[in-house]
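cache lookup: miss for this entity combination. No prior model stored, computing from scratch. Input as submitted by user K.M.:
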Amino acid sequence: MLRPPEQELGMRRWIGASMKRLEDPRLLRAGTAFVDDLNMADVLYAAVLRSTHAHARVLKVDVTKALADPGVVTAITGEDALRLTKPLPAYAVAHLKPEEYFLAVNKVRYMGEPVAAVAATDPAIAEDAVESIEVEYEPLSAVVDPEEATKPGAPLLYESFGSNVVAHYRAKWGDVERAFKDADVMIKERIKLHRFSSTPLEPIAVIASYDKISGELTLWSNAQMVGHVMLVMSDLLSIPPNRIRLIVQDIGGGFGLKTRPWKPLLIASTLSMKTGRPVKYVEDRREHLMAAGQTAGGVFDIEVAAKKDGQVLGFRLHELNNDGASLTYAGTYASMHATLINGCYNVRNIDWDSYTVLTNTCPSMPNRGVGKPGICYIVERMMDFVSQKLGLDPAEVRSRNYIHPDEFPYVTPSGRVYDSGNYRGMLQKSLDIVEYPKLRTEQQELRKKGRYIGIGLSTYVHGASATAQEIEGAKLKIDSRGKVIVSSGSPDMGTSHATAFAQILADELGVNPEDVNVVGFDSYSSPWTPYSGTHANKFSGPDVEAVLRAAHSLKQKILAIASKKLQIDQSKLVLSDGKVLLKDDSGRSVSIAEIARTAYQNPGLLPEGIEPGLEATYIGNNPKAIESFLTGPQYEVGALHQLVTGPGSPTGYMTYPSSAHIAVVEIDVETGRVFIRKYVVVHDNGKMINPMIVQGQVHGGTVHGIASALLEEFVYDENGQLLTSTFADYLKPTACEVPDIVDDHIETPSPRSVLGIKGIGEGEALGPLAALANAVEDALAPLGVRIGELPLTPERVHRFIKASKH
Amino acid sequence: MKHQVAIKVNGLLHRAEIEPRTLLVHFLRRQIGLKSPHVGCDTSNCGACSVIMNGRCVKSCTIFAAQADGAEILTAEGLAGDDNLHPLQEAFRDNHALQCGYCTPGFLMASYALLQHNSNPSEEEIRIGLSGNLCMCTGYINIIKAVRSAAEMIRQSGGSGLG
């Protein structure tokens, strides 16, 4: 039995506590239900044949030899995809008609694109069979560089599009011409962003089981966006949603890569529809790295206008975003840059010209923060460019430009409305932790001795609690033993939903957290909406708000029933320790279990107007979320976006957490090795439901960011061959590469969320790209080194040093 | 063409007929029905498949089941008693050293092996000892804390935690 911290009856005791997780005993004992843990007697195993070319026509696919093995039950090719499904919908792009199917039809456009698939009685037989499929390709020239892809004569991925440029967003906010006229200095720089991924350790996996008699499709999946999956699978397979049963239990990490796994879902489903048996498909690591998804990379040209006191008057940002080979998510990274385009700063004169181009590389997919790490990188590098040009301290320059605490709610140039923040306070706290003035002195002394240490700042806002229009469902039931079952529309992916919900309900309903069972997602019984799923730090928004409102509804009912039983006025009663009792704990009480028994078993004893039962469903969000987005839609959105949200761009987030990162590095100029001496994070997530869990997310996000700044990079050769298709080449950090992360926080509660929380998840993955680039550039300033690209591997840093020496 | 093996897993002897190419991780998951050893990569980099074989930590994706013939295997399922968790599992929970739980069995077994070899490892030694295991969620900091804490717990109880 968990003991609550001592506090006044009826006050919040569990929310805000670092309670140990309820999920852990089961996970530690391996009582898990990851997709590959599930088995059925008659299951078949799928294996996928994937393109070895980055760009080629597919002339012939011959599965005869694969079908020769008695263990192979069936095989499918692009012909089946054409016949049984429709093209994959585009999320952001509206003006082009999608042509991509889940298996290649006529063409392949990236190495690793699925071409055919088999279902066999044994996984090894399936793999063997795939190897015997014969494909005739006519190789085409590939284009991997985004700038090359825009040039006339570049190989076209989709001939019918006429161009590889598939999205163009253009906006001019404020008076940019005036800003440049009034400026004392103008700085011009080019910033490059590479492609990386958070690579969840559990690969994408699905079991699909189509029942020919009932016409029902059951999917056991580790997909994050259950609402999207329900609508898209229904649409593409022509099965009504009320006959698709999507079950999501344990997910071994998502980070965005499991939001839209259309191809694996469709491969397993169509194989099951053909065979009438359940089909299990579990991708391997190589497949994941080739084809599951990567961040969009890009080339960004920025011109900044500033006054000599460090005030940034405005900037022009020209973007070329590389979204890989598919239209499915293309344009979303770019559109998200508009959301945080001015960062923490009161910079209102902005010229934004953003292109999105396709290349013969892995399609883009959301990855921890999506476009937010990119725009944060650009803006935070800009602040350091200004500091360098003017010979001013980068902390000073940031401070000078911050939005002030009394300027909230702050309407950004792009029409988003920040809820609250204290950026200067946050920065100051981080400067105090590193003892900034002492560090600068130390830096000077060490330079005289030929040692190069650097300090890099990155302060930023992140959008959280999902976007204005997103809603979620929560269903609560209290049984006649007083125990609670919670069903949410969103699956957990290591994001501690069960513990957080239990803490909330312990306070709201006076139950013990261990008496709360949060069950997995099942579309037949969970209260899902098209928005349902875990992404964009959504949990702290509609997920929590829906549970709170459902709990409130139950609480009112419990109080009404208890009031009649105890003959005490409702206003004098509170819920605590599984009972309804007087606020001062004098006199009589009644257990919640007793209330539940009355509600279910003795409805005749219920008060007037109170219906039997003790369960509540709420679907919606906090109405204040709509405050977060002032202006109307700015640009068209694609079919998938419309399917889920209706027309318009909803990327105004409900809450705006913020963070300050400081990286202190030392560079070994002989080897180019970047050694992180200290890494400080001061984060502001408003109120926190469980500080221990928030800290875990801070660690995880920071390490993703550090790894993308120093280690991780997807590399393609000029023929579009992925050179980093294993964890031996695509470098993930181990316990040896992670610095001591010193974290602290401030709290500016959100006025929009009931609990004042702002949320965490993507959070700290946004900061390190700039913090480390700024730190390394700062360290090597005496050598005149400019950081043009990432990651800052020893080889790259060494190259920069060599290039800069006279 | 099948091969006979007899492998003791968590104290129970299993006899089976397998294809020679069967990997130990697949034998444990598919033949025995264990869930804890996980496959996270193709190149033995991630360590999610780590188990103890004849007292040593091995990556079961890089061992053929045939090589484990006659061996004794310990997996995360074999760590806890019926009513309580192993000190390592307690320490992982106390220190929030897991989020999604996918890498956790591998870390538990690698830590188990580390502490058998070195009952009082320094932080540096823990980092090195766990460098064969990848985690995508936690950033490792709490895992390192958990192992230190477990080492302390085991030492205080007279080193009996590794039975």
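stored under new cache key. Chain B touches chain A through 53 residues (CB under 8 Å).
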